[in-house]
Amino acid sequence: MPHFPTSYRWQITALLFVATTINYLDRQVISLLKPTLEQVFNWSETDYSHIVMAFQGAYALSFVMFGWSIDRIGAKLGYSISVFVWSLAAMLHAVASGTVSFGVFRAMLGLGEGGNFPASIKTVTEWFPQKERAYATGIFNSGTNIGAVVAPLLVPWLLGNYGWQAAFLATGAIGFIWLFFWWRYYETPTRHRKISPEELSYVNEAPQTSGESSVRWVDLLARRQTWAFITGKLFTDPVWWFFLFWLPSFLASTFKLDLTKPSLPLIIIYSAATIGSVGGGYLSGYFLRRGWTANWSRKTAMFVFALCIVPVMTIQFATSLWVVIGLLSLAVAAHQAWSANLFTLVSDLFPRKAVSSVVGIGGMAGSLGGMLFPLLVGSLLDTYKAQGSIATGYNILFIVCGSAYLVALLSIHLLVPALKPADC
């Protein structure tokens, strides 16, 4: 990795990492408060799934809106709007009075949070050459896990000392602090005063198509490369949402985990995901530096990570909490490693002017899958809970999760067997 008089691109990555951490901290709060809120508001699993669906539906719409707008107004302003909306929405949860109002504020949260990945991938594409993008993406994407690690420490403490409302107020307020630093320190490389000429030349070494006009969605949807990313997100995003929103509840119902106290098992699981995110981005970059093509580098790495998720299907045979924690840790780590490479495919396949739009389209597909999957989850768990065997419902879900990534990778390969860049 070259060294220059400045390495400002890594400071930009740090900003993306912190924002992504806040993003996932805000959305994780409700899953940790779920047992408390179920008692306060008398929620069923189906009620909770409807609240999750409200978030997912708005999140899907937000991906499209921000994906389109960020390619036009830029990452600086687009990201600022996104963080402002989601931080305000997170704080408004404190005044919710029932299922409907929680659904409304979750939808508002989703409308804001959908801007995180289009803005981040756009920024990485602008600030990094191809061989470093997966690694940079893995670093900022690891913020999803740090947020999920911080939440089991912070939220129970806030709940125990100040009540559930304080958990939403405190976590939501953090985003407004980040906004100050983003607005003050971010700019595109060609306009940034602190980047050295050597680093600027290195950042811009990847060839670009002529012109910077945006690409029409109808043209993007006509490309097999777009559908490869859509397919990858559609099959695997719902699995991550399941891990995020239902793992605390699964451990509480199956192993009597007390979610009113800091949870070591959850901290271990999401810490493993952090390692997977950074390591996953590094692995395909390592293959590229060894002279492999982007096609072999990305797909080999993704195949390895897809295989690592398969063992989660064996949770049904595990009787020890720590065996289950090990299997879940491997699965979430592999998902984040997979995700870092899936996002990087967009910058491999599309010019910078189309990156946010494609991320938005694919993110919408993943969110729609994430919106429909809770219908299955809620219905399945309620059915087996009524029969006194909720563990059976979870076992079925883990089988679905364990097989999704191999199916997704096969679909991606059939659509883009050679990772040929789109002509747009």
Short description, anyone?
The chain has 424 residues and is mainly α.
The succession of helices and strands, N to C, reads HHHHHHHHHHHHHHHH
How would you describe the oligomerization state of the chains in this entry? single chain
Fourth-level CATH superfamily: MFS general substrate transporter like domains
Number of strands: 0
Distance between the termini: 31 Å
Shape: globular
User: Helicity, in percent?
Assistant: over 70%
Strand content: under 5%
Q: Which CATH architecture?
A: Up-down Bundle
- The CATH topology is given as Growth Hormone, Chain: A
- Mean pLDDT across the residues is 84
CATH C-level category: Mainly Alpha
Segments where pLDDT lies below 50 for 5+ residues? 207-211
Q: Structural class, from helix and strand content?
A: mainly alpha
Q: How many distinct domains? A: 1
Q: Can you count the helices?
A: 16
**If you compute it from the alpha carbons, what radius of gyration comes out, rounded to the nearest whole angstrom?**
21 Å
Subcellular location: Membrane
Protein name: MFS transporter
Organism: Fibrella forsythiae
Main location: membrane
